[in-house]
Amino acid sequence: MRTFDRIYVIVVLIAVLPISALARTKPVVHLTFKPVQGFILKGSLPSCTIPFSIWQEPDPYFTDLKKTTAKGSIKFERNGQSVETFPEEVRVHFTYERFPALMNSCTTSAPPFDPNKIKFRAAWRDKSGTSIARGTFIVSEFETNGPWCENACGGVWSYDLEIDSAHVPLVDQLEITLETENGSRVVQFTGEVGFGTPDVSSRLYTAR
Question: What would you report as the CA-atom Rg of the chain, rounded to the nearest whole angstrom?
């Protein structure tokens, strides 16, 4: 298990998913993540996929959480009671898929890197700046389609991140950065609590 100090990326955190009487997925309040500007250089299609996805493990803490805006201030509540901070810990899943067809779907600015030697950095951001986010990460799963095909091969790497979040205000953003072994940035995501349908939509990018 490895430790990390700071994160500069955009990710998707998933809350417990409410289901309506018609079995439709309702938008809920949860952490949503997006890649930082500049990572997607050009999409060949109006929508394309990137080889990275990030989302939060379902957490009952976010169930029935509501977000309101009054006089320019964002507030969260549950059953009429104010909720101001994150739970003590948030668990985030990060996945990298290396397949030629997927990599060609979007043009990205990511430098070459070894998925087995990457580093994560995390930070909480508010209006005054950023503070180091403490936590750990482990490589939870690895799959490849051959031991001798090197970079021409495909593969899937999954990482579990456990981030300390006790006393962190719900209005703060979570920044997560994936780096190469020598410290070069591969991809960066930023997540914030908002409305949306929890899924791994951080992989789908709509070119603008």
Answer: 18
Give 36: exposed, middle or buried? Use CB within 10 Å, 0-12, 13-18, 19+: middle
Question: Quick one: pLDDT at residue 197?
Answer: 59
Q: How many C-beta neighbours within 10 Å does residue 175 have?
A: 25
The answer on pLDDT for 186 being more than 50 is yes
- What integer best gives the mean pLDDT of the chain? 75
Alpha helices in 38-178 (DSSP H): 100-103
- Long-range Cβ pairs for the range 104-107 (8 Å, 24+): 104/44, 105/43, 105/44, 105/45, 105/48, 105/49, 105/50, 106/40, 106/42, 106/43, 106/44, 106/48, 106/49, 106/50, 106/205, 107/40, 107/41, 107/42, 107/43, 107/44
Domain residue limits at 109: 2-206
Cβ atoms of residues 124 and 168 within 8 Å: yes
The more confident residue out of 25 and 41 is 41
**How many domains, the chain?**
1
Helices (H), the chain: 100-103
User: Is residue 175 over pLDDT 90?
Assistant: yes
